[in-house]
Amino acid sequence: MREWRWPRAGKIKFSHLQFETTVYDWQGAQITLICFDELTHFTAHQFFYMVSRNRSTCGVRPYIRATCNPDADSWVANFLAWWIDPESGFPIPERAGVLRYFIRVSEKIVWADRPDDLMQYLPRLEDLPPGVDPPSPISVTFIPATVFDNPALMRVNPEYFSWLLSLPLLERERLLGGNWKIRPTAGLYFKKEWCSVVDEVPADLEIVRYWDLAATEKTEFNDPDWTVGIKLGRDKNGGYWLLDMVRGRANPGDVDRLLLNIATQDGNRVGIGFGKDPGQAGKSQALHLVRALSGFTVVAAPESGDKLTRFGPFSSQCRAGNVKIRRGSWNEELFRVLEGFPDLAHDDEVDACSGALEMLNPQMKSWGFYELSRQRFEQLQAEQRGKPQPTQTLPAPGSMEWLAEQNKSS
Question: What's the chain's average pLDDT?
Fold first, then answer.
């Protein structure tokens, strides 16, 4: 922490918010100017709490300034959404520097183009103590900039532009282009164009719904995992149909009710599965859910292997065009998570897809994707060393031929 003081009692302090609770070190503070460097590295709770400390009687109107680089999965991306083109991810030029106004109502942000449009949400003058003026909405604007808006840096450090150009695609689009929609490793294990989105599905599918379970409610102070249920069907030709996705953040009791309500909607013909954590706690939870879902076919199975390995067969099926997805309002959220895997903070949809495919194929060992990659990599290395290996034909992991080979070896 560094601090500079002036004879007339003014001061500038460089400090930090290392933890969520560090904001309470500033309780009681009056700060005329608050500057955030890289706002996406702070949580929404940290930001809005510090906004409440932006107050002063020194004669200077309190204000806040913040810098940031794009991050499609940060709260800042949602906060600045009006200034960003939802298709391209780049700032909308004619909205740069345009003032908007907001207030928070029941933990939700309400926006307006004029402060008068928000007065209905604020206390009325007659409801306030005598001599107290009614509060005003908070004004916000966003001014995009690139390296070309810093000519002093370009003159002194002209190679900096080349350094930005040499970045990998994700970082280059964010740091050089200013793209707010590009996401980590998008398409490495899934691309939405691999799967057809359909309006009708066959009637004679074998169907399961697999749940990736979590049991923590969302509050202003946390960012818990989601409870996600993926409904997956398989037709007589071995094709897969992703029929529905349900997700929520809830406490254990509400999760129980969610599973029971969805099971009732799905009907008895839909099998239900979920992962069973090792240890006594996992066994107790599994027994509790099986009892809660009496009357339905329920399978609780331990999940083995890392996330990447388990997702391999589902990824292969999608890449081969063997997975169709029923059109629904949940499609885009599913695509966002699957395309962002494995670098997003939450990948519960990935685990649910993996579990659903395994549930329809209990003989699946989940090793095929990475075993095939390992063999191909070793063959490539040998060829580069001048030692060609015998050609070996391998079935695609997750295919019917691959499953047949699995049955032979088991």
Answer: 85
